[in-house]
Fold:
Amino acid sequence: MMLSVTRAWKLSCLALGAACAWASAWASTPEAALAAYRSGKSTQALSMLEEQLAANPKDPQLLLLKGVILAETGRSKDARTIFQNLIVDHPQLPEPYNNLAVLYAADGDFDKARAVLEMAIKTNPSYATAYENLGDIYAKLASQSYARALNLQPKKELQPKLRLINQVVALTPAATAPAAAAAPASASGSSAAAAPAANPPTPAPAPTAKPTSPTSGDNVEQAVREALEQWRRAWSARDIQAYVESYVPRYTPKNGMSHEQWVNERTARIVPRKRIEVELSDVQIQPRNDGSVAVRFVQQYRSDSLDNRTRKELVLTQQGGRWLIASERTL
Structure:
């Protein structure tokens, strides 16, 4: 079965149903609203939820169920807003990530869906629904890649591969379940176990930094500029993985956030954007006595919702042959 829009909405029902199951495990679950929703009385369920949200506007289970109902009744934009806010307020919960990814997939934005599902798995490596959905997303991305390849190479050369990828895409959720179950056992907790053999395209990822061994000030400056450019490209491409990897391992900002909270907050701010453009100018590099390097520059940020210009300072340290961001502040 191809992962068409119809398939994506079938995924939506499966994933959002799992979210409801999660909600029902809470002691204060709105049982009446949940029962009304399950019996097909969505309008009545929404009214009940609105009454309870008036008293508890930040309750995650009420908001999650409201987002589910809005998505199922065609109000996907409002549902996306709810799930995005839940990710910011409750970054430890995998369900909002999963449901947001389902909505992206329904819109055909499979790159965003992939990135958000990977964050769901990082939040909870044993969350099987996210693995199952991620397997379907990878299959669709691979199918699209081969379809584009038909325009670049003779069809005769591609037919064996296309037959293989069509078989992969046709897998049912039951067929992908063993991979999903096995994935959490990996040491890294990554989503690779759920992915088909073909590698899906990613949105203009920043190139992997090459280890450098600078022996002069000029080499240090060049390596730092390359690291700064990779960070800028990853941000502009909304490549959250490459963006996070531009920072030192377990990076924590100075505002008190944990590393996980910072990653989730940046994901919520970067991935949903339709467009991000980051330009850097007036770059000044100053080596420090401790071996780190301070970089000051003017940052021009543009997206579909914001346009601002700020002056910023990054401090980079060299780890494993790479220059990585150790601290960041606005001047």
Observations:
- The longest strand covers residues 307-319.
